[in-house]
Design goal:
10 helices, Inhibitor of vertebrate lysozyme, Ivy, single chain, alpha+beta
């Protein structure tokens, strides 16, 4: 019936392609989440025989379309939810997400963590003495806020109270499983947790073993990856990789050292901004966001701006604070730059800036209300 209907066949092929594509994405937890969504798909197909009697293309088509709409919205999250609904037990104890009174993640009757939107199963280790599971308590919100994605290890042994540990949180990225922990994997004798190095914080590698617990295994330092000119950031249309550019990274270090500012705070701030680069003539202006919140919102005391001169492939920096932003006052007979940018620290010194660069900086601060 499917093969004889072009419309039904088209949707069926789209569903199959979607399911197959999940295999590479759902590679944690030994593929159990992928297996769960495949099993759910097989159950759905079985129901078609009962729902369409007699079996016709007219009956099948809306059901296939509804199924595709259901699957394609958030297939990876759906797979995780289906897996949890099928029941997760650690050493015979149920791991459950409760949302009514006293919401949180529970191991049997013990609450591990408070209000949580979703449990992301990461990896499991089992031997004759212990059953251990690593998972992320996904609290939602901004993926840049590590506190919203704590990583837990729950280990259950016979005749011993369950062991519950957390991986130390570090500022990081929502990469992979939306956690500051970049990679969680099983090793021969336990679990491995890798936190990538960022410009303002060292990376860490932790190993959990049944007999030794959680220990720090290694520290990694951040090293910029790209030795290309800064202009390549903009020709690729991807300025978010600015701190991976060695030229920009070292220029920022030089500027903060000369002005006696915190390089750590500067790198954290320059890592991300909601604002698109502001362009004026030969100049491109990059804003900072010390602590990103909801879209369009930034918080924190450190305010820095980089002005890139395309002709010379040089970058200039201006720094102020949230407590003392530039005045952006009208000139009223004064120098327009002095009136607008009072209190700003310049590197290199302001007299070495081209007037057009100062104008681009002033416009970014004042005209665009950024």
């Amino acid at each position: 019936m499917i093969c004889d209907s072009a419309d039904v066949r088209q949707v069926d092929e789209a569903i199959t392609k979607l399911i197959v594509s999940l295999h590479a994405k759902l590679n944690s937890n030994n593929g159990r989440e992928f297996a769960t969504i495949v099993a759910d798909q097989l159950r759905w197909r079985e129901l078609l025989w009962r729902q369409c009697t007699p079996l016709t293309a007219a009956c099948l088509l809306p059901k296939f379309q509804a199924r595709y709409t259901y699957l394609k919205a958030k297939p990876e999250e759906l797979a995780g939810e289906l897996y949890l609904q099928s029941g997760v037990k650690i050493g015979g104890l149920p791991l459950e997400l409760q949302t009514l009174s006293k919401p949180g993640v529970y191991l049997a009757e013990s609450r591990i963590t408070e209000s949580t939107e979703r449990i992301d199963i990461a990896e499991r280790y089992i031997d004759p003495t212990v059953d251990a599971l690593a998972f992320i308590a996904n609290r939602g919100g901004s993926g840049m806020d590590c506190a919203q994605f704590p990583v837990y290890i729950v280990a259950v042994r016979r005749d011993v109270p369950p062991e519950v540990l957390t991986i130390p949180n570090l500022l990081g990225s929502p990469r992979e499983q939306q956690s500051c922990v970049s990679r969680i994997s099983r090793i021969a004798d336990g679990l491995l947790f890798e936190i990538g190095a960022w410009p303002w914080v060292d990376g860490k590698v932790y190993a959990w073993r049944p007999n030794a617990g959680l220990l720090e295994r290694a520290t990694t330092r951040f090293v910029p990856k790209s030795k290309a000119p800064i202009r390549d950031l903009f020709t690729r249309g991807d300025p978010t990789g600015r701190l991976n550019n060695a030229q920009f990274y070292e220029a920022l270090r030089l500027a903060t050292t000369a002005l006696d500012l915190s390089f750590t705070a500067a790198t954290e701030a320059f890592w991300f901004s909601w604002s698109e680069p502001y362009r004026r003539g030969d100049y491109i202006v990059l804003d900072t966001c010390a602590r990103p919140g909801m879209k369009g919102q930034c918080a924190g005391d450190f305010v820095g701006t980089a002005v890139y001169e395309q002709r010379t492939d040089k970058v200039f920096f201006a720094f102020s604070s949230a407590a003392s932003p530039p005045d952006c006052k009208p000139a009223n007979g004064r120098d327009p730059t002095d009136a607008a940018l009072g209190g700003v620290q310049f590197f290199p010194p302001r007299f070495r800036w081209q007037p057009a660069a100062l104008l681009a900086l002033k416009n970014d601060y004042c005209l665009n209300n950024r």
